[in-house]
């Protein structure tokens, strides 16, 4: 289900025709879905979450935990698959996370909240990811 490198869209117009309007808004315009509305908020199904845009494997269900924040939360990403970018929008210093392959927006990462031993929360929009059940 992963796109080959030569199939990756090169322009935002090419992404726009591949994605639904909501997917495009979140993945390519760094939008945020409303809390508690995403399809994976409470999902416990075992499997691997792929980038909704390009299909790259990003998160294992083994790292998903209940954060009660309204978005799917993972305390780790598959190594090298998620890149972090400083985000100073909304008057806050946050760290945006994007797919390392297609540069699509996933959500934000937070540290020091104490949810899990890894002390990290990748707060991800459901619409940015696709679960492939194990
Ligand atoms: Zn991607």
TrEMBL record:
By its UniProt entry, which Pfam families does this protein fall under? SelR
The keyword Oxidoreductase is assigned to this record: yes
Q: What is its EC number?
A: 1.8.4.12
- The organism sits in which domain of life? Bacteria
Q: Keyword set for this entry?
A: Oxidoreductase
The reaction(s) catalysed by this protein are: L-methionyl-[protein] + [thioredoxin]-disulfide + H2O = L-methionyl-(R)-S-oxide-[protein] + [thioredoxin]-dithiol
Protein name (record): peptide-methionine (R)-S-oxide reductase
């Amino acid at each position: 289900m992963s796109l080959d490198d030569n199939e990756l869209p090169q322009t935002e117009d090419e992404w726009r025709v591949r994605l639904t309007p909501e997917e495009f808004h979140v993945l390519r315009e760094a939008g945020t879905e409303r809390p508690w509305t995403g399809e994976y908020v409470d999902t416990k199904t075992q499997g691997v979450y792929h980038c909704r845009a390009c299909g790259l494997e990003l998160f294992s269900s083994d790292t998903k935990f209940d954060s009660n924040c309204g978005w799917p939360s993972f305390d780790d990403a598959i190594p090298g698959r998620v890149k972090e970018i400083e985000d100073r929008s909304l008057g806050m210093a946050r760290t945006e996370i994007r797919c390392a392959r297609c540069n699509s927006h996933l959500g934000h990462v937070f540290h020091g909240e104490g949810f899990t031993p890894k002390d990290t929360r990748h707060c991800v929009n459901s619409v940015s990811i696709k679960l492939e059940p194990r």
